Amino acid sequence: MSNTHRIITGFGLIALLAGACSSTSSQADARDRATTQSCSWYQMCGQIGAGKTYDTLDSCTIQVRAKWDNAWPSASCDGKINESQLQICLAAIYATDCTSLLDIASTLAVKCAEAKVCSGASGPDGGP
């Protein structure tokens, strides 16, 4: 590996880690990240394709985005995304067993619950 490649890779890792530590206040950003992770999970579980849960990746994205909008309403979540809880949710989506309804329910109802993901303060004093 060349020094240039190491430097570029290092900067990419730093940017990734910095993003994981930063505070996300936008409901739309959190929704889009969860949508991407969810559709990757559907794809990994063989649920995207003709006759499956979603016919295409685009249809998955559209339908799953709407589900996350419903789960994390902008009115109650925008400006209040708890980044550490969002990271737990995203990791849980990735790790959810494709065949376990209990695991899927736990991810959605517990690890990705609105009360957890939308629990961040929106203002410096913790108020709205």
Give a summary of the structure in a few sentences.
This protein is mostly helical. It has helices at about 5-20, 25-45, 55-70, 75, 85-95, 100-110, 115.
Identify the notable features of this structure and list them briefly.
disordered N terminus; mainly alpha; disordered C terminus; 128 residues; 0% strand
- Number of helical regions: 7
User: How many whole angstroms does the radius of gyration measure?
Assistant: 17 Å
The best one-word shape is globular
**Mean of residue pLDDT values:** 83
Assign the structural class, choosing from mainly alpha, mainly beta, alpha/beta, alpha+beta, or little secondary structure.
Answer: mainly alpha
Order of SSEs: HHHHHHH
Please bin the fraction of helical residues: 55-70%
Describe, in plain words, how this protein is organized in 3D.
With 128 residues, the chain is mainly α. 66% of the residues lie in helices and 0% in strands. The protein is built from seven helices and no strands. Helix 2 crosses helix 3, helix 2 (27-44) runs parallel beside helix 5 and helix 5 (83-95) runs antiparallel to helix 6. It is globular and about 40 Å long.
Lay out the secondary structure.
Layout: H1 3-21, H2 27-44, H3 57-71, H4 74-77, H5 83-95, H6 101-111, H7 114-117
Helix pairs in contact: 2-3, 2-5, 5-6
